[in-house]
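Long-time lurker, finally posting.

We've been working with Major facilitator superfamily protein (Perilla frutescens var. hirtella) and I want a structural starting point before designing mutants. I don't trust myself to interpret raw outputs, so I'm hoping someone here can both generate the structure tokens and explain anything notable. Sequence follows.
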Amino acid sequence: MIQMLEATPLLFAPKCRPIVSFYPSIISSNKIKNPFFTSVSCSLPNKNFKITAAKHGQAPDLEPQSNKNPDDGNNLLAEKGSGEEVDFGWLPAFPHVLTASMSNFLFGYHIGVMNGPIVSIAKELGFDGNSFLEGLVVSIFIGGAFIGSISCGSLVDKLGCRRTFQLDTIPLILGALVSAQAHSLNEILFGRFLVGLGIGVNTVLVPIYISEVAPTNFRGLLGTFSQIGTCLGIIASLFLAIPSENDPHW
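Top reply, 14 upvotes:
Generated this for you. Predicted structure of Major facilitator superfamily protein:
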């Protein structure tokens, strides 16, 4: 009650002219370090106001009080000043993006790996001169990729990206082993089909995973690594196919 009486003369001073209604139940009187001034703080439903009045009859000043931290101004200046510096926000996600892009490297590699040694493979497996079978060995990989890409969405929804990556390694490893040790047409077709299943999952999974782990402002930059991995895989397979023309064991 005493605090209410102390605040009343300040609120209704002739030069104060208050234009809002203050509720006495939320008025508090606070003494500040300066002995010549008294600070009265009033809280309104939406905003905070501070009324400062002198003891010598000066009109109080009505100042809006911000709820922000006083150091926010310095932080804002620091943010503006840091705009000229290099932002390394992409660095924590880069190892994960690079590892995921290696899956697309396999995609590009298996696209071009059969272009060089297909003639030698046809001679060794007994379908030399049969253009249909030669094309089937190459294209069945794309057929498996079609099935893998269709099934990838449901796998990611049920298992998540990391589990799907782990599961996807099974057809990739088995397909590569069967293709390398093939001694008949059926074996090479089955191996290529298994590789295609794994690659089809990767083509859908890698962009989803990169978009999840990459920061928002670097999502476009890091997302390009999936296509870069594909191109590097094609280039690597074509370079490795150069000596296969003279190698009878492909």
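Before you design anything, note these points.
DSSP finds eight helices and four strands in the chain.
Residues 143 and 169 are 18 Å apart (CA to CA).
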